[in-house]
Amino acid sequence: MFGQWLRAPRQLRLVFIATMLLLSGTLGWLAWRLLDQDQQLLLQRLAEQRDTAADLVVAAMEKRLTAVEQDLDHVPAADSSKRLAQAEGAIVFQFLPDVIRAWPENRLIYYPELPHQPETPPALFAASEELEFKNHDYPGAIAALREAASSNDSKVRAAALVRIARNYAKAGQPRESIETYQGLANLGAVTVGGLPAALAASLAILGQQAEPPARLDAARSLYRDLNSGNWPISFAAYQYLSGEVALALPEAERPAPARLALAEGVEWLWERWHPARDSAALSANRASVPTSTGAVLLVWRIAGGEIHGFAADTGYLEKHWLADLKPLLDSRGVRLFLTNPDGRRVVGEPPSSGSRAAVRLASVTQLPWTLQVFQTSDGGGAWQSRRALLVAGIAVLLALILTGGWFIGRTVEHELAVAKLQSDFESTVSHEFRTPLTSLCQLSELLMRGRVAGEQDRQQYYEALHGESHRLRRLVEALLNFGRLDAGKLQFHFEKLDAAVFLRQSAAEFAQGQQAHGHRIEVETHAASSLIHADRETLRCVFWNLLENAVKYSPDCDTVWVELTKKGRQVEVAVRDRGVGIPRHEQRRIFEKFVRGSAERESGIRGTGIGLAMARQIVRAHGGDVSLESEPGKGSTFRVLLPEREA
After folding, report:
1. Which pLDDT value is given to residue 607?
2. At what angle do helices 455-487 and 536-552 cross, to 10 degrees?
3. Contact call for residues 628 and 555 (beta carbons, < 8 A)
4. Element holding 630 (H helix, E strand)
5. Cβ of 260: how many Cβ atoms within 10 Å?
6. What pTM was computed for the model?
7. What are 455's strand-pairing partners?
8. Helix intervals (H) in 123-196
9. Closest by Cα among 565, 611, 607, 619 to 592
10. What is the pLDDT of residues 278-327, one digit of tens each?
11. What is the mean pLDDT of the segment spanning 437-441?
């Protein structure tokens, strides 16, 4: 039952469709699992790269910090100080009980605390001040100060110049006052009024300028001097002078100086150590300190009531520490982000939302920062490429499976169709053999037993016997020739034939036989002489088969037309009828073996289904071909093209 069910084309298609769907679904599930595993493997590998890079960065940073700590043990030795602070953005400092020292000396723009500088004794200027404040004798006060202004003691000279400039200003001589302050500026770091002479002069000149352009220039000069680091000032003095500059200089022209971070970092450490000089307040010896212009790295050593320290801003870290790590990070496709323990940014850009990062906490690594190492990309490009390649491979495999299944299904369906055709062929041939054999047996029995009414009936029986014998012989010969032709063993005996003469003879012989069924064969030859190289017997079979088909399928028309024409170097024989015709969808398969048209099956017309297949093979063996033109209800035209031979 199952075998019979599978023989039906529809059920067979359903079986193949179900099988292909099952295979496709299984392959798709396996592909999805494979892609998922590949993605998980990629994520695991990226995580390993991040962890490895983070551990390497921690080791490199620890090595750097350890080297700095070892060098601090030798501060203030010149070589150690120069080596640590040789690049911009770093400074080495030393805290003594009441003194702060720094290397290089001009890199710290202010000091948390400075030693007390004694001022010039006021008694030296008592006479000039009486003239200035009591008598308002400004020229007299200036004259009284001339001797002190020439003193060899720079502090005395600075104090005298300040008073002279002040008296010039009160006397209404601003130009002379400014010139005097400019002379004061040449004394540089000499302290006057708690400020270095250069800064005190710049501040005084700023206060003297009334015109906006001149005042703006004076403010710019003071801003440059204040942040140059050339003059030691305290934090309080720096704040005061910065406030004065802010009153005269626009904010856009006074950006926060880069060295301010170093000064704020040193101040942070001084405030925690100096009040009690308690080492316990500084349990660690490393810190990343937030300042107004960015984080500052501080590394220090405490020994014998002193601190030897190193400070570096973020620019120094990026240029001299992290730059060495860049090849390591780039080779693993990762980036580094440093933050203070409280989470504030130090160096680098934070990872985007959803990015996976390898985190190393400051509390675990003993570094001043928390490290985050994350991928510059999520590896999507590489994974997309692998996924595309894998999907393409699976698609090709799936296409091969579907294509193979389709071909197998078509092949099996074709074989089933061939088997059915062969079964129909066997049934038809059996019927074709049975009919003449039955007639032969019946007629032979009547003649043998003498059951013939008269001599006329006897003659009719003999003619019938002769006709059925010839019919049976033609059928047997056709089957034998088809078998030989299909096996490639049919022998052809070619000779030169006049196509017109041969065609007329073949048509006349056909018309005289019983197979014509009274139909007329009209032959027209438009070529007087057309020689062909052909096998007479097999070519006669071709024409007889075409004529027999034309007769069988023209029940309502008793004429068949045969026309011979020349087309270039070819001879064309057209056999035309006005029969039932052949539908267009059957015309493509009508020349296949065992195939019979629907009109033939529906009308019960006898046939084996091998005539046209054998005709085409014979004609092609002659170097020609057979074609068909047909329309249902209007008849059919078979055209045989054969190559013409020269005489």
Report:
1. 58
2. 120
3. no
4. strand 625-631
5. 21
6. 0.59
7. none
8. 126-133, 138-149, 154-170, 174-185
9. 611
10. 656 677 789 999 998 889 999 998 887 788 999 999 999 999 898 888 88
11. 77
